[in-house]
């Protein structure tokens, strides 16, 4: 009797769309946190590139975000839209290419201190509506 051979090339089926969704919008199953851009490749934010998501369903309601990279001015401009009665924590990950760290953040025209340069994240306020942000970068110095 001939042994059966299992293929190592399985059809991606629903896995590719699910993995792409998790790269862009990930709901932490152990907390009320929604991550935006958590797994995006650095190359997606090369100079002049844009990442945009609209109407993404979450257990807290539909949301959207847009990030536009301007490496030549060391910044990312963005917009995050959260539904009414949104009560989850939102962490936006901005993975810039090259050796750059977040140096400051402006949210809705004001200085925003809730960011982590090490984790490349900005924690947004738990409030619905449209949030406009500018994430400023500086080069990492090796020494």
CATH class: Mainly Beta
Share of residues in helices: under 10%
Instruction: Calculate the mean pLDDT score and round it.
Output: 88
Query: What is the fold-level CATH name, i.e. the topology?
Result: Maltose phosphorylase, domain 3
- Number of structurally distinct domains: 1
Explain this structure to me?
21% of the residues are buried. The chain has one helix and eleven strands. The chain is 7% helix and 44% strand. The protein has one helix spanning 15-24, and strands at residues 25-27, 33-36, 50-56, 63-70, 75-82, 89-93, 100-107, 110-112, 115-116, 121-124, 129-139. The chain has one domain (25-139): Maltose phosphorylase, domain 3, CATH 2.60.420.
Summarize the helices and strands and which ones pair or pack:
Elements (H helix, E strand, L loop, with lengths): L14 H10 E3 L5 E4 L13 E7 L6 E8 L4 E8 L6 E5 L6 E8 L2 E3 L2 E2 L4 E4 L4 E11 L4
Parallel strand pairs: 2-6
Antiparallel strand pairs: 1-2, 3-4, 4-5, 5-11, 6-10, 7-8, 7-11, 9-10
State the gist of this model.
This protein is mostly beta strands and 143 residues long.
Main features:
mainly beta; Maltose phosphorylase, domain 3; 143 residues; 1 helix; disordered N terminus; 6-stranded antiparallel beta sheet; single chain
């Amino acid at each position: 009797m001939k042994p059966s051979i299992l293929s190592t090339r399985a059809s991606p089926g629903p896995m590719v769309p699910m993995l792409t969704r998790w790269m862009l919008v990930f709901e932490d199953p152990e907390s009320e946190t929604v991550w935006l851009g958590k797994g995006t490749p650095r190359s997606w934010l090369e100079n002049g590139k844009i990442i945009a998501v609209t109407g993404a369903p979450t257990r807290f309601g539909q949301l959207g975000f847009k990030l536009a990279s301007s490496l030549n001015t060391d910044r990312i401009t963005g917009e995050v839209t959260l539904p009414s009665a949104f009560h989850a924590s939102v962490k936006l990950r901005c993975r810039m290419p090259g050796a750059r760290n977040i140096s400051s953040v402006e949210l809705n025209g004001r200085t925003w201190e809730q960011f982590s340069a090490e984790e490349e994240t900005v924690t947004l306020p738990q409030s619905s509506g449209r949030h406009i942000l500018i994430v400023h970068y500086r080069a990492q110095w090796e020494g």
